[in-house]
Amino acid sequence: MKKKIITLLTLLVSALAFACSCDEIHPMIEFHSSEYVFEGKIISKVYSKDSLTYKVTFDISKHYKKGDAPKTLEFTVTSEGELTGIFDSCDWSAKKNQNWLVYARNLGGTLSFSGVCSNSKKITEYAPISLREQTILDHAKAFKIENYIFENESGFNYCKNITDINTILESGKIKNYENQITLLNVSIDTDGKLKSVIRRKELIVKKDSIFDLITEIGDSNKKPITEFEKDAIELVTQVKIWEIKKHQLTGIKVPYIRHIWIFYDLDTNKWRYEL
C-alpha cells in the first residue's frame, strides 16, 4: 500500500512538473485577434483515414463576433495522443455533443481553434462562462484597442529601446550613492516616443471596469525620491525613442509601458541597466 501511495505521488509530481505551459491570453485581446467568437455544440466528429486528425462541426447558437454569422463551422484538429502516438501535457480533445465557447482564428488561411493556450473552452453546468468573461463578450463591440495601455500581453510585438541606453549611462554621475538599484517604468506613446518615467513602486494605474485593461497611468509620489532615483530618472528620461508596439494581427499601434532596472556599481563607478 505504501509503495502504491509513493507511486501515485511520483506520478502526480511528474504531471505537475510537465503541466502545459503557455502565456495567459486576455479574453479581449484574443477576441480582437479572432475571426469568429461563438458558442456552439459539436454535432459531428469524424476522424481521418489515418486517425491523425479529426473534423468537428459546430452548430452555432450565439455569435459574439458575427462577421457573416455562419450557422455551422468546421475545424480540423490534431487527434489525441493515444492515436497519434505523441503524448504531451498540452494534449486535449473535443467530443460530439459538447458545448463550447470558441475563439476561432485564421492561421495561414485555415480557420482553427484550440482547447489549450486559448480562452476557447468546454461549457458545462459546473464550468460555465465566468461572469467576467461574459461581461467582456457582451461589450466587445465597443472595444477599441488603441484606447488602452499595454505591458506584456500576448498578441503584440516585443519592444525595446532604439535610443542607445549604454551611451547615455556612460554620462551618469559618479557618486557614493546610498542606494544603487531602482526599478522604473517608461511610458511610450503610439509613435514610440517617451512620455514619462515613473518609479515602479509609485506607479498607479487606472483600469477599465469592463475589460480590465489599463487606460491611464500616473505617479503616486507617496515616498520621497532618493538621490540615486533622481539621477537614474534623469538618465532614463534621455532615452527618447523606443520601438513602436503594434497588435500583430491588425497592425494597430498602441501605447505601452516597459520596466527597466537601473544599477550603479560602487566598485567600478559604472551605471548599467536591464530590460
UniProtKB/TrEMBL annotation:
Domain of life: Bacteria
Keyword terms: Signal
Family annotation (Gene3D superfamilies): 2.40.50.120
Signal peptide, first to last residue: 1-19
Protein name: Tissue inhibitor of metalloproteinase
Species classification: Bacteria, Pseudomonadati, Bacteroidota, Flavobacteriia, Flavobacteriales
